[in-house]
Amino acid sequence: MREELEKLVISGKIGSDLIDPILLLSEAGYSTHRSWGFGKITEIDTVFSRISIDFDTKPDHSMDLGFAAKTLNAIGPEHILARKVDDLKALQKLAAINHLELIKVVLLSYNGKATIDTIQKSLVPEVIEEDWKKWWDTAKRELKKSGHFRVPSKKSQPVEFHEEEVKIDDRLLSDFEVAKGLKQKLAVVSEVLKLVPDLHNKKAVATIVLAVLNDEIPKYLKNQPSLVLEAVFARDELSREAELEKQDEEVTEAVIWERITDIVALFEALPAAKFKPALLSLKKSKENWPEIVLDLMNHSTVKLAGDCALLMINNDLLDDLKKHLAYLINQQSAKSDLLLWLAKSRSDTFADILDAEVFNAMLTAMEHDQFQDKKINRLGDFILSDKNLLVELIDSADIEVVKDITRKLKFSPVFEDMEKRSLLARIVKAYPSVQSLISKEKSSQDNSLVVSWKSLERRKSEYEKLVHKKIPDNSKEIAIARSYGDLRENHEYKAAKEQQKFLMKRKAELERDLLRAKGTDFANVNTDVVTIGTRIDMTNLDTQATESYAILGAWDSAPDENVMSYLTPMAQAVINHKSGDEVEFEMGSQKQRYRIDSIDYALDQASDSEENQEEATSA
Q1: Which CATH architecture has domain 449-519?
Q2: pLDDT of residue 136
Q3: Domain residue limits, the chain
Q4: Which residues of 56-65 are buried (b: 16+ CB within 10 A; e: fewer)?
């Protein structure tokens, strides 16, 4: 064929530099094109200077020979793409009985290395028709045991094949030596622990690794205690597996716990898989561990909250656990992740604390998250998705309590209108008598929100910043992230889109609230009855204790200063009552009885509350 091609060069139909590429295509028999994909070469016509190729999307496609030489990549019959056409059944057999040989075929097709994504696209769905993840997990374990393959720690890096076999011991030690810093070395130690049974000399490998770990651990003790704790866990496990004695100078778990001043921060830095061993280590090292664990539960993720609860239950401290949960719920200080864990794991064990007050606490927690600009509302999503949760929580509640929950839900900003309707419908189905509370015409008081001028200005300022700063900045982030390509694997793009969803939701909420808001300075308030802008002194008829509260606008709540929003259940119970009246309402699943002793202006409290909130906002 070379002579025929040289004639084409002489006649000017192709350049001399294209002879070798055309010969390579002829010998290979297969090729790939960047747009049309894989194709089988069926004919090369040197008379008319044409080449015919069967592409998947363009069968029997004819191309100019010179153009083909420039745009096609030749691949041989051993390439995975060619073998899928010519020998698919043999590949499927390899997939079933010889994982390593099949992966070797794929890697050699791409010069000895390919990413996991490339391997998957090469084999699925033609060769591997079943569950890819299950197949790959099995194959990966075999790859790590083989001396011919190197499996990277990151998915984006390629799997490599090497003809020369390297013993597992040597490979692991080599990886451990080149790993930078304690964190990377721990990743290698994790692989060592998985492959201990396959090591040729586990004691020799462990001795080298343990010596380095014991040298590195003290360097990180002050600034990265969570990483040190992980390292100690891994070190001690490797010592046990290799049947080696501990060294006297080793940093112990007890030493780490003695130095830790912020246990919450330590657990925040730990991977979830280390929660249980860390809790057991804490129990072993601290006499007051139950107190620490109970506090940790309310500053943790859902997973950690569950692990903390399990530790308490397994040590016969269920009553202490329930008492603490009830306290947090009644004080409405339980955080959303703790409440989400309680909702997900609800059972007869916690039946005595799973009541309507839990839903009140959930709304309070979600409103706090929203105020803190928390982007994801997992608790809200779970409440909406679990059709039984709300109904179960209010199942045995007094009708007045249900009405209070209905009112609070109606005014809560944490759910969209359609979401609220869905939740309210669940309440009505269980308690039909509250239908009138939902469907009756709203008064002007119901439709509007009475707010202080300063709180209104804060909301307007938040809205302006959102519209003119945060949303435009987010749009730029989306544009930049989109330019990185492949939106399916583009984590920056996904994160920016999630942020966009949150910002647009918050914008809609602020617009809705600002339309309803009516600003006031609480001047000229009628103090003949309790109303918005008054301060009341009351006597608790059960304890005879005197309490004082200022009732202000919808956004002026400041519990620490005894300032409450007029939308709260207590405020709703006392509004329109006179001095000397006795009122009764439920709080924390208990009936409260108060006598109103005096009613006065609340201008001073309004000013103090707004200044405190303003300072908190600027901080």
Answers
A1: Orthogonal Bundle (1.10)
A2: 94
A3: 2-76, 81-161, 167-285, 287-414, 449-519, 534-618
A4: eeeeebebeb
Q: What is the pLDDT of residue 503?
A: 85
Cβ atoms of 285 and 320 within 8 Å: the answer is no
Q: Which segments of 56-161 are extended strands (E)?
A: 61-64, 73-75, 113-114, 149-150, 159-161
| Residue bearing tokens 């290395």 | 113
Task: Using alpha carbons, list the distances in angstroms from residue 437 to 348, 384, 415, 424.
Answer: 32, 21, 18, 10
CA pair distance 383, 424, nearest whole angstrom: 12
pLDDT value for 488: 58
Number of C-beta neighbours around residue 571 at 10 A: 21
Greatest Cα pair distance in the chain: 116
Dig out the tokens for 36 from the structure: 């049309």
Task: Report whether 523 contacts 607 (CB < 8 A).
Answer: no
Q: Write out pLDDT tens, residues 534-553.
A: 999 999 998 999 999 999 99
pTM score, two decimals? Answer: 0.57
* Range of weakest confidence among 201-210, 282-291, 393-402, 503-512: 503-512
Q: Is the Cα torsion angle 542, 543, 546, 548 positive or negative in sign?
A: negative
Task: Catalogue the long-range contacts made by 301-304 (C-beta closer than 8 Å, 24 or more residues apart).
Answer: 301/272, 301/337, 302/337, 302/340, 302/341, 302/344, 302/378, 303/272, 303/275, 304/267, 304/272, 304/275
Nearest to residue 169, comparing CAs of 134, 125, 206, 142? 206
Q: How far apart are CA 231 and CA 183, in angstroms?
A: 8
Count how many Cα atoms sit within 13 Å of the Cα of residue 181 in the half-sphere of its side chain. Answer: 6
Q: Which residues pair with 601 in a beta bridge?
A: 534
Judge contact between 214 and 250, C-beta under 8 A: yes
Strands (E), 435-516: 449-452
Contacts of 283 (CB under 8 A, 6+ apart): 289, 293, 311, 315
Distance CA 265, CA 284 (A): 19
Q: What tokens appear for 618 in the block?
A: 């600027």
3-state secondary structure of 134: helix
Spatial neighbors of 490 by CB under 8 A, at least 6 apart, are: 481, 482, 484
Residue 98 to residues 84, 104, 207, 593, Cα–Cα distance (Å): 16, 10, 34, 77
Residues 80, 217: Cα–Cα separation, whole Å: 46
Most confident of 2-6, 19-23, 226-230: 226-230
Among candidate residues 303, 295, 299, 340, the one with its CA nearest the CA of residue 321: 295
Q: Kindly report the CATH class assigned to 534-618.
A: alpha beta
* Domain 81-161 coded CATH 1.10.10: yes
Residue 251 CB contacts under 8 Å (≥ 6 apart), including other chains: 214, 217, 218, 221, 228, 232
150/497 Cα distance (integer angstroms)? 36
Rounded distance between C-alpha atoms, residue 555 and residue 37, angstroms:
61
Residue the block writes with tokens 């040190």: 228
Give residue 414's Cα distance to chain centre: 19
Paired residues of 43 in beta bridges: 52
List, in sequence order, every residue forming a beta bridge with 74; answer none if it has no partner.
31
d(CA 135, CA 507) in angstroms, rounded, equals: 46
